[in-house]
Design a protein that fits this description.
This protein is an all-alpha fold. The protein is built from 16 helices and two strands. The two termini are 26 Å apart.
Length: 387
Amino acid sequence: MRRAARATSVGVAALLALAGCGDPDAIPDGPQPTPFALVLPTGFPAPVIPADNPLTVEKIELGRRLFYDRRLSGNETQSCGDCHKQELAFTDGLDRAVGSTQQQHPRAAMALSNVGYYASYGWGNPLLETLEDQAPVPMFGETPVELGLSGMEETVYARLRADPDYPALFEVSFPDDPDPIQIGNIVKAIATFERTMLSGHSPFDRFRYEADPEALTASARRGLVLFFDERFECFHCHGGFNFSDSVNFEGVAFASVPFHNNGLYNVGDAGDYPSPNQGLFDFTGAGRDKGRFKAPSLRNVALTAPYMHDGSIATLDEVVEHYARGGRLVADGPNAGDGADNPNKNQEFVRGFEATDQEKADIVHFLESLTDLEFVNDSALANPWPQ
């Protein structure tokens, strides 16, 4: 990705000149966008790019600016980038996200490493199948309020039209639209930028794909073997190039959209999870779906604490202990119950295991080897606005 991504860091004036905006006589039909080809990390398949939203240099830059622009919140205090910080693999470090009105959300902000490869978006929503489906949710959702834009479309348009660069960037990004500053195009631009968030240059990748035996410590190498061992079962939900079984890409026979109950709760020993976080059940109403959530990617997982959909597990060591036990015991309080006995739990893969302290540490060290420092320091993904 690195060579292609750097193209998105070119200044706005240079991008517009490249597209013909600097010379209106050069292209009689108006400025045209510059096609962009992702350079994929080794071992990665081609992501699905919607036919009606192709990658272009100008649209990626437009999306990057919009992703970090606080004018896309109702009160101009928050952007997408405030809940998805690059240094934290595009999450926020909180147990539960906080929106622009300071409302605390019921769930944690998800990390965005390789977000363009997911088969569904959100923790338990089977209806959001593309990035274009997902982006309007934080913009216009009211339960909870995230960016708080409901009913403020015209205000947003006025803000963007008043910017010195946005009108021309929208025009070249969407040359067939006579009035391009519209919500649908904002969504497409942000989704396009997010598809460039490719992370595949971790120590694990150097060990696996570049045959660098020094890329992993001895402990991480042992942890790699354990991670893919049937005794531990980690890889069943967190396998493949993106370490998640929710995956879609070009050429796949069908997109895998699984959701899992990992025994995090068993409220009242009745199989319930704390409301309003019942997972897939909130959409299907089927009792068997209580507590079923998407398995997120483990890439950069060492940067994305706290863990689980509600940030209720603080460290990777505690995550490993949770799976070793086969579910979490909440001894008292309103959420009391033994998750290991949850009747909806994925019994096949979350069954518990015996492991030494060294083996548990080895698994954690392997997970830490999935940290991609190039990704979290890539200037092409960084906030372009003055800080």
